[in-house]
Design brief:
The protein has two helices and three strands; from the N terminus they run ααβββ. By secondary structure, it is an alpha+beta fold. The N and C termini lie far apart (69 Å). The protein binds zinc ion. Zinc ion binds next to loops.
Length: 127
């Protein structure tokens, strides 16, 4: 009796672990797609290359901002977002003395369940 309980418990633990690994792999794949879609971006204000760390990310914009309160989803749509950001770091990752505000134009696409399946910075504007 005790042995069979242990087996079932072990199996449940494994299947949960597999699910977590799958979710992490999907996330990694999504992040690499986002990175691949980002070309070299130049700052319209200072003319320097913009380090990708300055650019808005899908988690920060969609999950932590747009969907923060929950209960609402954008579905089956392609939309453009204007997102406030800052040119704070050089292309080498050093903090700029003269930081300046920017607006990122982002092309997003949402599937039928509201998941953001495309997130691409298409333009950077000064503000
Ligand atoms: Zn700049």
């Amino acid at each position: 009796m005790f042995c069979s309980f242990s087996l079932i418990h072990g199996r449940r633990k494994n299947s949960k672990g597999d699910t977590m690994i799958r979710q992490i792999e999907e996330k990694k794949q999504h992040e690499s797609e986002v990175l691949l879609s980002q070309k070299k971006v130049m700052c319209p204000v200072c003319g320097e290359e913009i380090n990708e760390d300055n650019l808005p990310e899908v988690k920060g914009v969609i999950e932590d901002n747009l969907y923060y309160l929950g209960g609402v989803a954008i579905v089956n749509s392609s939309v453009q977002l204007l997102v406030d950001c800052w040119h704070e770091l050089t292309s080498g990752g050093i903090t700029l003395d003269d930081q300046h505000p920017l607006t990122a134009v982002i092309a997003c696409r949402f599937d039928g369940e509201g998941k953001c399946v495309q997130f691409e910075v298409t333009e950077i504007r000064g503000r």
